[in-house]
Amino acid sequence: MSKKELIWLEILSQAIDDKKFDFTQKAMAEKFGLSLSTVFNALKIPRQLGAVKVTGRNFSLADTEKLLYLWATQRNFKKEIIYETYSPLGPKESEGLMPAGIIFAAYSAYAQKYNDAPADYDKVYVYAGSEELAEIKNRFPKQPGSPNVFVLKKNELAEKYKLAGSDAQMFCDFWNLSDWYAKEFLKKLKEKILNQ
Q1: For the chain, which domains are there?
Q2: Exposed, middle or buried: residue 57 (CB in 10 Å: 0-12, 13-18, 19+)?
Q3: Which of 4, 51, 59, 113 has the fewest Cβ atoms within 10 Å of its own Cβ atom?
């Protein structure tokens, strides 16, 4: 995840989870240890689209949906996959075997957060760091077959600030998946996000 995407995720998470829509560029830069110019540059495209309104050093999220779609379309989800394998287990069994420290993504994240699944799913996605990845490889060694267990690179800053696994993150996960049921999950999540 790029610095720009991390800033977008922070803005979206605060808006969706905390109903906070006003920010300062300085506070954003200080929170993540970034320069003001990095924050300013991250706001360029959202500002051009009308998703963000900037006034001096302050800015506000004007259109949550536009920023969600911007990030979802610009994100390189496949590039973040660092390991994939086939498991003969069902998704619930695979989820139960995941080591401590991982963050569930996509279908598993939604099912666990909302105790519901809009459709049956057969793939498990998780975010993991190097320690968790080694343990996942032990528990889910490479096997022939169509991959159904995927490990994405954990973003330490996103984890530190409790942004990983957020509704905004899930939205972008679903948007970038081609499974037929991703659309069902996306539809339900969009209702939750935009109708709060």
Answers
A1: 3-74 (1.10.10.10), 78-194 (no CATH)
A2: middle
A3: 113
